Every structure is written in structure tokens, then in C-alpha cells.
Amino acid sequence: MKSHHQEFSRRGLFRAGVFAAAGSLPFLGAGAAYAVVSDSPRFKLAGMGDDPIIGKRLQANWVMQSFAYDHVGQHVYFAQHNTEDSDPDHSGDLWITKTDTAGNQLGSMALHGFGHGVQIGVEPFGGAVYLWTEWKASDGGFGTKVGRFAFVNGAVLERDDSSIQDRTIALDNLHPTSPNPQPAIDPQYNRLAVRFRDADSTMRIVLYDLADARDGRLTTGYRKVERALPVRTPAWAAANPFQGFTVFGRYAYLLEGGVGDTSYITVIDLNDSGQSVVQDRWPTQAGKSLPGREPQGMAVWLAPVSGGVQPRLCFGFHANVGGVRQANVFYKSEFE
Known about the structure:
By secondary structure, the chain is mostly beta strands. It has one domain (10-332): Tachylectin-2, Chain A, CATH 2.115.10. 5% of the residues lie in helices and 45% in strands. It has 3 helices and 21 strands. The protein has helices spanning 10-15, 210-214, 234-239; strands at residues 49-57, 63-70, 75-81, 94-100, 105-112, 120-125, 128-137, 143-150, 156-158, 165-166, 182-186, 191-197, 203-209, 225-228, 242-248, 251-256, 263-269, 279-284, 294-305, 308-321, 324-332. Strands 2-3-4-5-9 form a 5-stranded mixed sheet, with no helix packed on it. Strands 1-21-20-19 form a 4-stranded antiparallel sheet, with no helix packed on it. It starts with 9 loop residues before the first helix and ends with a strand. The model is unreliable at 1-33 (pLDDT under 50).
């Protein structure tokens, strides 16, 4: 279904009313907000949307894991993981496929020893495009750090290449460990968000101004906000794996689901704490007819429209059509 274009402006943002509604399904866990961020509108999950990318094959026929948009060049960058290669020497190998906003391939880049590709951030800066990904894969194939590096079409980037900037978040004595940190970029508010696990195995999100993060200012004093994410029950987590997240202003959006026709988006307010949610596991059957449908990735797309840009909350799905792995992207574009 086609969406109605909505002109986006900061005046409109702060005029929009945003209220929290309690969820109904139980979560476990708690945690306090670290600070506060300014108000912003919240995407309407039941609102109008569209499917700009359907049935597109990416580089090397590997599984799409995540994606993000270059809002300046209007390109999409997909992270892909080879689920069929058990060779320890290739643990954490990824492909990055660059496409136009309809999913047509424009280029690619190989990453060796980086991670699983759970989440990716894209930052156009200084005439180049920089990627933020998990980095330095462990024996299990997941990244242990966050790396920032320029996308170079056709390049092969090794995990120890000197061009990779270490942008791993600096933790404190309350959060002394961060296996598999996952970065995402809010392109409208110019912020870096990182999802990570602390020493108590609580999943958390921390938010920085992108300029600070770019320059490596990632210590505690530069955090805009930090909060615990709702901890999922073991049965739910087993049936509905975490598949990605994104941030737009004050709100974070989490994607869950396994192979099947129903996936779930949970909305949290970064200014809240504990197990509070704004909208509790909103079910979506977008793309339910896709063979082997599995949710993979979220991102915000600032799509150009007459008079400005239209923010879109995008969520992706992998499909397998006769052994051909395909990428699919849907979005919501209305605000509450």
C-alpha cells in the first residue's frame, strides 16, 4: 500500500504529541535511564507503508543480516553473512552489498573476520561513506568491538587493517564487558546507538552524538542516554530471535522473529527505565508469502519528497527462493 508523503520539519516534530501506552506481554529485567533526550515523534506501526525492495539478490548469495541507508547518496548498504561456511578461518566473514533504493546492486565489499552482521550503521561524511559494524569476530563468529571504516567498492578489508577506526564504547565498572556490540545510526538526529550486553547479561542501549562518536569520544561523560532493554523470557527468545534495531529521536525500535509469517516490533522510550515499553510486540505479517521469510534488520530512511524528506521506519526480511537468497524491505511512514 502506498503511503501519503508527509513533509518533515523540526517544527512539526516538536508539535507532535507523543505518549506511552503500556504493553501487555510480560518482560523480565530492569534498569534506569542514564539521562534524557529531547522529545520526538513516534512511528505509527499500524500506519501506511510500502515495500520498496522485494526479491532482490545480493552479492555472493549470502544471507542478508542487516541494512542501513546513506541518506545523502540515497543508497542502501546490506550486511550479509555466510551461514553455510563452517571453516574457522572464515569465521565472521561478511559481504557488504551497495544498492540503490530499489535494491539494484551498485557495488560490494568483503570484510574478513568482522562478525555476524547483526547490525550496521551508515554515515555519509566528508564526501565518503563510512560503515559502522561489529568487528574483531570471536571464535563464535560474533564481533567483539565496533569498527568504523570507509566503504570502498571492490575492496577486501582484513580485520587488522590499519584503516579501521576502533569505536568501541567505553564502559565503566557497572558495565565492564560488551560482547557483540551492535551499532546503529539515527540519520535525522545525528546520533550513534549501540546495543550491548553488560556484565549481568542485561541488554542495554547507549546513545551518543554522532560527532562525538566519530571522533572517538565514547566515555561515560559523553553518553546522551543509556537504559536497560526489556529482557525476554527464554521461551520467547528461543522462538523469536532478536533480529535488529534502530533509533529515531527519543524512541528505539526492536525487531524479533523466527522463520514464519509473523514477526514483532517493540517500541521503547529511551527516557524510560526498567521493563517499560511504549508498544509491546506489535505483530506484523509483512511479506508473509515470502519463501523462508525471516526478519533481518531495521533502519531509518530519510526519503526525499517534495518540500523535504520523509522519515521511514524500515524493516527487512530474508527469503530463499529455490536456493537463491533474496533481500526484502518494508517501511512505515506515519507518526502517532
